[in-house]
Design a protein that fits this description.
By secondary structure, the protein is of the alpha/beta class. The protein has 6 helices and 6 strands, in the order βαβαβαβααβαβ.
C-alpha cells in the first residue's frame, strides 16, 4: 500500500517496478504480446489520464535504450473502459497491451468473457488506485471479488499494489 498526498508520485512509483520488469524482458528479447500489468481506477477520466501520463516515461525509456544501441522496444498501454470502441476492444484481444488501464466495472466484464480471461491470464501486477474511494461501498466489494477472480485465473501470486491519497496535515 502506498499512501501519499495527491501529486506526490504514487502512481508512477507503483508502475516503476512493473515497467522495469517489462524493459528487462524487452532487452532480453523475451517481451511477448501479453498483458502483464492491470491498473484499476475508479474513474474513466483518471484511467485516460494515467494512460497518457505513462506515455512520457515510456517514451523516455525507449529513447534511452535507443541511445544505448537497443532499439525496437515497444511497451504498449491501452485503456479499457465502457467508452472503449468495439474495434479497439477486439484489437486488444488480438494483440494484448503489456499494461491495461481499466475501471472496476470493465475489469469485471473482461473477467466474464473468454477473450478477456485469456488476455488477463498472464497478469503479474495489479495496481488499484484511489482504493479509499471504493473500499466502503458496493463497488469495493465488487472489485474485491474481481481481484480474487483475477488471482484464481493467473498461475503465480499477483503483486498487488494499492494506492491511497493521504490528506496533507
Amino acid at each position: 500500500m502506498i499512501a501519499a498526498p495527491t501529486g506526490s508520485g504514487k502512481t508512477l512509483s507503483a508502475f516503476l517496478s512493473a515497467i522495469d520488469d517489462l524493459v528487462w524482458k524487452a532487452v532480453a528479447g523475451e517481451l511477448v504480446d501479453e498483458t502483464q500489468v492491470v491498473y484499476v481506477s475508479p474513474l474513466k477520466a483518471l484511467s485516460n489520464d494515467i494512460q497518457i501520463n505513462l506515455q512520457e516515461p515510456l517514451r523516455g525509456i525507449q529513447q534511452n535504450l535507443e541511445a544505448s544501441g537497443i532499439g525496437g522496444i515497444d511497451i504498449r498501454t491501452l485503456v479499457r473502459t465502457g467508452d472503449t470502441p468495439a474495434k479497439d476492444r477486439v484489437a486488444m484481444t488480438r494483440k494484448p497491451p503489456h499494461i491495461i488501464v481499466t475501471t472496476p466495472e470493465s475489469l469485471y466484464i473482461l473477467l466474464t468473457s473468454e477473450s478477456g480471461r485469456k488476455m488477463l491470464g498472464t497478469t503479474r501486477t495489479l495496481i488499484v488506485d484511489e482504493i479509499h474511494a471504493m473500499v466502503d461501498d458496493k463497488r469495493g466489494s465488487h472489485l474485491s471479488l474481481s481481484i480474487e477472480r483475477l488471482q484464481a485465473l493467473v498461475k503465480e501470486p499477483l503483486v498487488r499494489i494499492g494506492l491511497r491519497r493521504r490528506r496533507n496535515r
